[in-house]
Amino acid sequence: MNNKNTKEIIFEQVDKCYGKNYVIKDFNLQIKDGERIILLGPSGCGKSTTLRIIAGLEDINSGNLYMSGKRVNDVPCGERNVAMVFQNYALYPHMTVAQNITYGLKAHKIEKGEIKKRLDEALEMLDLVEYAQRTPKQLSGGQRQRVALARAVVKRSPYFLLDEPLSNLDAQLRLHARKELVKIHERYHQTLVYVTHDQIEAMTVGHRIALLNKGELQMIDHPSVIYNRPANIFTAKFIGSPSMNIVDAKYGSGKLWIGKQSVHIPEIWCKQILCAETENLLLGIRPEHLIFSDKQEQDTLCATVKYVEDYGNRYGVYLEVEGIELIALCEDMVPQCGKNVYINLNPEKIHLFKKENGKSIGYPKEIPMLMSIHMNEVNVNKKEK
Ligand SMILES: Nc1ncnc2c1ncn2[C@@H]1O[C@H](COP(=O)(O)OP(=O)(O)OP(=O)(O)O)[C@@H](O)[C@H]1O
């Protein structure tokens, strides 16, 4: 198994059930040393349970869990050396901020000077110096959340586990807090596992996103790959807002047919991916990749505008093509309800899935993916490199 000096976490064929109900089933996941991994998925998909299994707060029914190369199935929570931040912060109401932050260190008999050093550093880093002597009820939600983060940071644990730590904050504080969190991680390089159902948080904090549905891993990859190359319909629809449009389509003679209308598809798709005529396809196209056109051309689709939503900075336009509803995003022109419009599909931005199992049929190599991975590159094993 892996090196004990790394901070890897490995789930190997893990099952967890409550009674007869499986929460996660045959779960395999390898979290790298120093990685920020996001567990994302709809409510009840098993995110918190997965995190609690790592923390040792839940037993597993079968399979193995390894941390730092050691099988930890039977290692109790207190011996796993994890720092955890919960959604409700779980602060002690009768203790001051400073006492809350240092309580765990005192319990572990860390030397006084070292406790003070870590406390001062955490107060400074999380902008809490002036609140050190207040109790939690004298703090705002954002300040409490920072205390919970500080308490986890001072532990200097190799594993940092966070269960929706920002969900009680308003939008602006969330943004600020997630930047702080990334900064903390870049300073200490813990292996960070973060549960959220917020896509933006997942995309911005994670080196990789593990997307779960009903206890099964749907896809794990860099945020850009998840967005631009979804492995299946579930991933395609879950990531992105408004959701990706998915419509029945057929391929034949170099064209993609949606009902009686058709569009040409670039030759590389035909050669590399769509080798034979394929009846049972699902075409995916994101709302931002439906482009309005003012005239009918060879490859435009004719659609009727059904409804328009104003989002302030752009419009969501609900369209009907061949009896199928699509949603498009547009920034400038506001099509009127009831009018017919022409739309183009950006051929570099289409996704095709097999209808029988919802899996992607793949992408031609030449089609570029707008990669932002370099911004979010996994910066692991820094010291060893
Ligand atoms: N102690 C328990 N006993 C029985 N069922 C449980 C228990 N804890 C969780 N579950 C069930 O396990 C499933 C997964 O729960 P979990 O909390 O892991 O989901 P989640 O993805 O974190 O959801 P949310 O985003 O709503 O917090 C749910 O169906 C839940 O009802």
UniProtKB/TrEMBL annotation:
**What keyword terms does UniProt attach to this protein?**
ATP-binding, Cell membrane, Membrane, Nucleotide-binding, Translocase, Transport
Which SMART domains does the UniProt record give?
AAA
Which InterPro entries does UniProt cross-reference here? AAA+_ATPase (IPR003593), ABC_transporter-like_ATP-bd (IPR003439), ABC_transporter-like_CS (IPR017871), ABC_transpr_MalK/UgpC-like (IPR047641), Mo/tungstate-bd_C_term_dom (IPR008995), NA-bd_OB-fold (IPR012340), P-loop_NTPase (IPR027417), Transp-assoc_OB_typ2 (IPR013611)
Pfam families per record = ABC_tran, TOBE_2
Molecular function (GO) terms for this protein are:
ATP binding
Identify the domain of life. Answer: Bacteria
Q: Which positions are tagged coiled coil?
A: none
ABC transporter domain: residues covered:
9-239
**Keyword Disulfide bond carried by entry:** no
Q: Entry's PANTHER family?
A: MALTODEXTRIN IMPORT ATP-BINDING PROTEIN MSMX, TREHALOSE IMPORT ATP-BINDING PROTEIN SUGC
Can you name this protein?
Sugar ABC transporter ATP-binding protein
Source species, please? Claveliimonas bilis
